[in-house]
Amino acid sequence: MKIITRCLSSPPSITKDDSVNSPPDKSSIVLPKNKRSRKMRVCLNIPSFHPYQITSNNLSCKSTELGQNDELILQSPTNPLEEQDEDIHLAPVAEILKFLYIGNERDAANKDIIDSLAITHVLNVTSHLPEHFKSSGIIYKRLPANDSSQQDLMKYFDQAFEFIETARKDNGKVLVHCQAGVSRSVTVTISYILRKSYLNAYEGYKFVKSKRPVASPNLNFMGQLMSFEQALNKGEIERQLEAELKFEVLDKN
User: What are the boundaries of the region Disordered (predicted)?
Assistant: First the structure.
């Protein structure tokens, strides 16, 4: 894969370009290279996203190929990493549906939160965070996934769907969490919504983000959600619609 990188002397801002009506052919992310402080910007095709315009002073461009030891940490184009830290830290548990919540590692470890929300099931989308209240009768499911450009999260969508559906049919409530409650847990939740509705990947993202503003799947995961959407549209994966589930997406352009 050819990657176009832009070396930055200062972090750019990302602003929505409302003057463009057609889908964009690229979006941008900020990433570190070889754990140095150098910042680069990578452009990848994300056709379902509205266009964003990059603005920065002293911007130079060149083409490069990632080396074997280079590390890609992908960040959603809608929320630059520099602008997210404080919001992520302060974000409370978000109710996405009446039986479905998204939180972070702190929420998953807080028994008062678990009890106050009447959580019966916890979907842990990490490989390392503990299952704190298993002995208290909480039902756990682990999806051992990392928040990286190499992680295949789509292979877990079926397991996540079945776990959430079992809880819903048993009148339970599910907390989906990863470490920050921003990328992995959000992606899994969107995959559930896509299968229960006719929303596309971008609309599913907007719906979840309207409930949890810090929601920001990395671009690898957004690509997998788009592939999942295509599989649903082709009938390769069966939708399971529920009349009582409403997914109102407000366009705040």
Answer: 10-32
pTM across the whole model = 0.69
Q: In whole angstroms, give the CA distance from residue 151 to residue 109.
A: 25
* Alpha-carbon gap, residue 100 to 174, rounded angstroms: 5
Whole-number CA gyration radius for the chain: 19
The residue with greater pLDDT, 60 or 110, is 110
- Confidence category of residue 107, pLDDT binned at 50, 70, 90: very high
The pLDDT tens digits of the residues spanning 236-251 come to 999 999 877 777 765 5
- Which one is catalytic: 7, 43, 61, 178? 178
Cβ 114 vs Cβ 169: under 8 Å: no
HEC sequence for 133-195: CHHHCCEEEECCCCCCCCCCCHHHHHHHHHHHHHHHHCCCCEEEECCCCCCHHHHHHHHHHHH
Domain 86-233 of CATH type 3.30.565.10: no
Tell me, yes or no, if 7 is annotated catalytic.
no
Residue ranges of the chain that CATH labels 3.90.190.10: 86-233
Find all residues with CB under 8 Å of 189, minimum gap 6, and list them. 96, 100, 102, 176, 208
The closest of 69, 78, 1, 66 to 40, measured between CA atoms, is: 66
